[in-house]
Design a protein that fits this description.
CATH topology of the largest domain: Protein Binding, DinI Protein, Chain A
Number of domains: 2
CATH class of the largest domain: Alpha Beta
CATH architecture of the largest domain: 2-Layer Sandwich
Strand content: 5-15%
Order of helices and strands: HEHHHEEH
Low-confidence stretches: none
Structural class: mainly alpha
Largest sheet: 3 strands, parallel
Strand order of the largest sheet: 2-1-3
Helix content: over 70%
């Protein structure tokens, strides 16, 4: 009888141990966390430099157009101020309206240019961000990570329990920096 009780106890402990080991493995796998700096990855991509050059050139083009409009406005304003003493009231009104219309066009262009710059930035950066996100997801899947956090917005993380995968993602993207 003692042997049966002892055998049941040993068998129970073995069964418990057998259940405990896979549970620990599952638990350890579920707790695999990683972190990275996505901005560092994106700005290291060669496409980023190309996009920023295009963005800057586009901004310069809009800035040049605005500057030409302002120069034209200032020249007309100067001319009006010089001639205003000799102009009749109906001509003054027409010139003042022209100046006001030009000023309105300048303001409208400025607002439009700001929106166009935002649109251009999205147009240029979205494919780069998507490519980086895909590489991050691929590295995370390959490494068996459950969560990847962007270290820019983390308040705290324990580097001993979270793996920095920035270098792995850069390698996946072919970045050598």
């Amino acid at each position: 009888m003692k042997n049966k009780k002892m055998m049941k106890r040993i068998l129970g402990l073995l069964l418990f141990a057998a259940l405990l080991v896979p549970a620990q493995n599952i638990s350890a796998q579920a707790l695999k966390f990683g972190h990275l700096n996505r901005d560092e990855i994106i700005t290291a991509m060669p496409e980023y430099d190309t996009a920023m050059k295009q963005y800057s050139a586009y901004g310069q083009e809009l800035s040049n157009a605005l500057e030409l409009m302002q120069v034209e406005y200032n020249n007309k304003l100067d001319k009006y101020q010089q001639e205003s003493k000799t102009l009749s009231d109906p001509v003054k009104q027409v010139r003042e309206q022209e100046l006001q219309d030009m000023l309105n066009r300048i303001n409208t262009f400025q607002q439009s240019a700001q929106q166009k710059m935002q649109d251009k930035q999205q147009e240029l950066l979205n494919p780069i961000v998507e490519k980086a996100n895909k590489a991050i997801a691929d590295v995370a899947k390959e490494g068996g990570f459950i969560y990847i956090y962007d270290s820019r917005s983390l308040v705290y993380f324990d580097p001993a329990k979270s793996i920095d995968i920035t270098a792995q993602v850069k390698t996946k993207l072919g970045i050598k920096k």
